[in-house]
Amino acid sequence: MRILIVDDSAVMRRIHKNTLLENGIDESSLIEAKDGEEALKIAVEEEITLFLVDWNMPKLNGVNFVKEVRKYQKYSKTPMIMITSEAAKYNVIEAIQAGVTNYVVKPIQGNVLWEKIRKYL
Amino acid sequence: MKVQYINPFLQATTGLFKDYLGMEIIAEKPYINTEPNRLGDVSAIIGLAGETTGAVVLSFTHDSAIAIVSEFAGKKYAALGSEVIDGVGELVNIIAGNAKKDLHEFKIMISLPGVVTGSDYRIHWPEGIPVVCIPFKSNFGNFSVNVSMRDIA
Questions:
Q1: Level-2 CATH architecture, domain A3-118
Q2: What pTM did the predictor assign?
Q3: Of the candidates B74, B82, B97, which has its C-beta nearest A85's C-beta?
Q4: Does the CB of A18 have a partner CB in chain B at under 8 Å?
Q5: Paired residues of A102 in beta bridges
Q6: pLDDT above 80 (res B1)
Q7: Could you tell me the pLDDT band of residue B106, with boundaries at 50, 70 and 90?
């Protein structure tokens, strides 16, 4: 299993990582990226089984990252959860159209996020 | 700037600090901030663009920034280092992003947050639009949310 956490905030990456570790995910399964561009390079080189993606990031934002990743056959059905503060309805629609599997609005309690994540593992 | 634009920011801030972080916070009466450059020691700024323009600034004292980000990150920070700065930026991002869902009149894009520290900084607020300050008292120290948003034409 390889889970890629994509968020420009080191604090948010820490929070997501802690949620996963507290629920028994091995640290060696986790990879972090600080923007969409870095994440895309990792996605091409690795076989990611689950993506946790923020929206507002420098270089390549989350929605455009999702669109890019979906172009790869190997990721056509890979679960991609967007975890973002963007709470407006039109944002949710845009993200779903880009190819996200699930959409979660921050802030979210770790146990609630885990319930969303576990069904994809 | 219409009064009803303030409520979404008030609710988003309450949702973050009270409901999510479980902090005891008291929102005091919002007022027009006539000195919008005299804010706290640590201020996180986010720009609004799209069908309106404006800015949101979340401002902390030095100690409240450290205490509140420690609570948010689940890690005790002792100083105003890069992770605390990062965390303050993330907090304003959450407030602005959550407020959007109740600002039905506009389709808004939010910028990446920037954070300034110290006592000698100047924020270039949008010209000609009042800045409304919502002060908060909390068990982790005081902070404020400052909003300036252009009315729709």
A1: 3-Layer(aba) Sandwich (3.40)
A2: 0.94
A3: B97
A4: yes
A5: A81
A6: no
A7: confident
